[in-house]
TrEMBL record:
It comes from the Bacteria. Keywords: Signal. The keyword Chaperone does not apply. Residues 187-271 form the DUF4377 domain. This is Heat-shock protein. Gene3D superfamilies: 2.40.128.270. PANTHER family: DUF306 DOMAIN-CONTAINING PROTEIN, HEAT SHOCK PROTEIN HSLJ.
Length: 276
C-alpha cells in the first residue's frame, strides 16, 4: 500500500496574523554571551551582493533585554537558516519554508507580506519555534554585516522589540561553484542500491531518474533508473520514502578523481510518498 503526503500546496499568509498567534509565547532566557567581534560593514546598496552570496545560519538569539534565548536549538534539527535571493528572503530548516519580499534602505530592512508552505508539523516545539520566528521577522528593522578576519561573516538582525538574531554566513552554491546552476528534477527511489562509487567499497547510492516537465507542469518524460554517485546537499533520505526533488545542478571545476563531476543542491521537495 502507498500513503500519499497531502501537504504540498502553497498559500499566502499574513505575518501579522502569525504575530498575533505568538503574542502569548513565554520567554525563556539566560545571560547572553558576547557578540562575535568583527569589522562592521555599513549597510548600503553594495551590501546586497554580500547578503545574497551567503546562506545565513542562526547561531545566537537574544530577547529585548539582551538575554540569550536558546529555544531555537532543536534536537536532531539543523539550525534555522535565512536565504536572500531575487528580492526575497526565506526561512528554512523548520516545518515549512516561509518567504517574503524585502527592501533595503541604508541600514533598514523592510519585509512585506509572506508566503509559506502548509505542511503539518509533528513536533509541537518545532511548530512553536516556526511561529515565533515567522512572527519576529515581521518586526525586522535593521541589519549589519560583520566581516571577521579568518572566519565567516556574521549577519546581525535587529527587531522592533529590541531583540536580535546573529547568523553565520556560508557561501551559497552559486558563490561556491561560480554559476547559477541548472534546474533539474530527480525522482528518488525509496531505497538505496549498492554501487561502485569510485574508491569507496560497498557504497550505497541513491537510486534516481530524471523527470522533465512542460511549462504547464505536465510530466513530459521520465528517464531510466540509475545510481547517483553523489549526495544531494540539503536532502536527508528516509528509507521507504519516494521523493520528487527540484534541484540545482552545478558543474564542479575540479572534482576529485573518485567523485562525481556534478554537485546537486536541494531546492524543493515537490512530492513525497511513503512506500510500504
Amino acid at each position: 500500500m502507498r500513503a500519499l503526503n497531502a501537504c504540498k500546496s502553497l498559500s499566502v499568509l499574513s505575518l501579522a496574523a502569525l504575530l498575533a498567534a505568538c503574542a502569548g509565547a513565554p520567554q525563556a532566557s539566560q545571560p547572553a554571551s558576547p557578540s562575535v567581534p568583527g569589522t562592521v560593514i555599513t549597510p548600503s546598496s553594495s551590501a546586497m551582493p554580500q547578503l545574497t552570496a551567503y546562506h545565513w545560519e542562526l547561531v545566537a538569539m537574544s530577547d529585548h533585554q539582551g538575554r540569550s534565548d536558546t529555544r531555537w536549538r532543536q534536537a536532531s534539527q539543523r539550525a534555522p537558516r535565512l536565504q536572500f535571493d531575487n528580492g526575497r528572503v526565506s526561512l528554512h530548516n523548520l516545518c515549512n519554508v516561509v518567504s517574503s519580499s524585502y527592501q533595503l534602505r541604508g541600514s533598514t530592512l523592510e519585509l512585506m507580506q509572506g508566503v509559506s508552505t502548509r505542511r503539518a508539523c509533528a513536533e509541537p516545539a518545532l511548530n512553536e519555534l516556526e511561529q515565533r520566528m515567522t512572527a519576529a521577522l515581521s518586526g525586522a528593522m535593521s541589519y549589519e554585516v560583520r566581516n571577521n578576519a579568518g572566519g565567516p561573516p556574521l549577519l546581525v538582525l535587529h527587531f522592533n522589540d529590541a531583540s536580535r538574531w546573529e547568523l553565520k554566513g556560508t557561501p551559497t552554491p552559486q558563490t561556491q561553484y561560480g554559476s547559477a546552476g541548472e534546474r533539474v528534477f530527480l525522482e528518488v527511489a525509496p531505497h538505496r542500491v549498492p554501487c561502485n562509487n569510485g574508491v569507496a567499497a560497498n557504497a550505497q547510492c541513491l537510486r534516481v531518474r530524471e523527470i522533465r516537465f512542460a511549462d504547464n507542469g505536465v510530466r513530459q518524460s521520465t528517464g531510466e533508473w540509475q545510481p547517483l554517485y553523489a549526495e544531494i546537499d540539503g536532502y536527508q533520505h528516509e528509507p521507504g520514502v519516494r521523493n520528487v526533488l527540484r534541484l540545482n545542478r552545478f558543474k564542479r571545476a575540479q572534482a576529485p578523481a573518485d567523485a562525481s563531476t556534478w554537485a546537486y543542491v536541494l531546492d524543493m521537495v515537490v512530492e513525497t510518498e511513503r512506500v510500504r
